[in-house]
Amino acid sequence: MKFIDQVKIKVIAGNGGNGCTHFRREKFEPKGGPDGGNGGDGGNIWIKTNRNLNTLIDYKFKKNIIAENGYPGKSKNRTGKKGSDIIIEVPIGTRIINNNTNEIIADLINYNSKILIAKGGKKGIGNTKFKSSINRTPYKNTLGKKGEVFDITLELILIADVGIIGLPNSGKSTLLKSISEAKPKISNYPFTTLIPNLGIVKINNKNNFIIADIPGLIKGASKGLGLGINFLQHIKRCQILLHLIDIFEKTNIIISNIKIIEIELKKYNKNLYNKPTCLVFNKIDYYDHKKLIKKIYSINNKINTTKKIFFISAINNIGTKKLCNFLLNYLNEYKK
Q: Which UniProt keywords apply (predicted)?
C-alpha cells in the first residue's frame, strides 16, 4: 500500500432544511390552522481514528467531503429528515490543521478518538411554531442555516516507541525485519526504504513495543536532499532513537558518519536531536572475533559520547535480544 502522510481536503457539512409554510385544507375545517413542519438539521462531518489504517491515500483524490443536507419540513406538521452524518476514518496519529489559520484543531493519538470537524446547519422552523393568539394564520417560516465549511490538512505522524535512523544501507530495514514481524523491502542499494515501516517487537505475551524504520538520511538532508528528511516528523513521538551505524568502515569514517546524522538532526529539529539515542553498530558478523575486539576498541577510543552503545549483527540476530530487552526496560521506566 502506498504511504500518504499529508492530504488537503475541504469538509462541507450539510445545510439545514427549510421550514414549511402550509395551512390545513380539510373538508370540515374551512379555516384550518397552520401545519407547516420544521426542516431537518444538516449532516455533521466527524473524523475518527481507525487502528487498521496506516495511510491517508483514500483522500488523495477525494478533495471534497460533503455531508447530506437536511430535508425541508412538510405539511401536517411533518418534520424533514435530518441529513446523514459522514465519518472520515484516519490512522491513529493523524493531526488536523485548519488551512486558513494554521491552527492545529486536533491531534488524534488514541484508539477510537472521534471529533466533530464540521457541524451541520440548524433546521428551519415551520409556520406552525409561529401561531399565537394574535396571529392565527402565520405565513412566517425560517430557512435552514448553512453547514460549516473548512479547508483542512490531514497530517499523519506515525506513533512508534522506537525510531531507527541512520545513513542509507546501514541495515535499518534488516534490523526491523529481524526483531519484529514487519516485512520491509531489503536490497543492496541506497534508499531501499522509501516510506516509513512499522513493526511490533514482541518480547513475550505481555510485553511489546512499536518500532519504526525511517528512510536513510544523507548529508544535506535538512536542506531537502535525499528522502529521510521528509519523514523525520514520524519519529518526533518516539521515546528513544536507535542510530544505526555500519561498522564495516574505517573508524575515522564511522565517526564522520555519526556526525553527519547528528548535524542533520540538529538542523532539522533541536528537540529531535536531544531525544534519547542509542548508538548501534551493525554488521559485526563481517569480522572474526579477534578483529572485532580490535575494531570495538578503536571505536571506543575515538568516540566521545555518553550515549548507550550496542554492537550487533541484524542479519544474524547477534546482540539484538540484548538491545530489545534494554529498549523494553527503558520504555517501561518512561511510562512510570
A: Cytoplasm, GTP-binding, Hydrolase, Magnesium, Metal-binding, Nucleotide-binding
In this structure, how many other beta carbons lie within 10 angstroms of the beta carbon of residue 140?
15
pLDDT value for 12: 98
Domain termination residue (choose one: 99, 129, 157) = 157
- The pLDDT tens digits of the residues spanning 251-283 come to 999 999 999 888 888 888 888 889 999 999 999
Tell me whether residue 84 is annotated as binding.
no
Expressed as residue numbers, the domain containing 24 is 1-157
Question: What percent of the chain is helix, strand and coil (3-state, nearest 5)?
Answer: 25, 25, 50
SS3 11: strand
Q: Are residues 153 and 186 in the same domain?
A: no
CATH assignment at residue 187: 3.40.50.300
Q: What does the angle CA 155 – CA 159 – CA 161 come to, to the nearest 5 degrees?
A: 155
Q: What is the pLDDT of residue 43?
A: 98
143 shares its domain with 185: no
> In sequence order, what are the beta bridge partners of 149?
12
54 is in an annotated binding site: no
Instruction: State the 10-residue block means of pLDDT for the chain, 336 residues long.
Output: 74 98 79 89 96 83 95 96 96 92 91 93 96 89 97 87 87 88 51 61 83 66 48 77 93 92 85 92 94 93 91 94 94 76
Let me know: does 159 contact 210? Beta carbons within 8 Å: yes
For residue 24, give the CATH number of its domain: 2.70.210.12
Last residue of one domain, picked from the residues 157, 172, 199: 157
Question: Cell 392565527, residue?
Answer: 136
In this structure, the answer to whether residues 292 and 150 fall within a common structural domain is no
Three-point CA angle 158, 45, 92, nearest 5°: 15
Residues 71 and 170 in one domain: no
The annotation status of 171 as a binding-site residue, yes or no, is: yes
298 is known to lie in a ligand binding site: no
Query: Domain check: are 243 and 216 in the same one?
Result: yes
213 is in an annotated binding site: yes
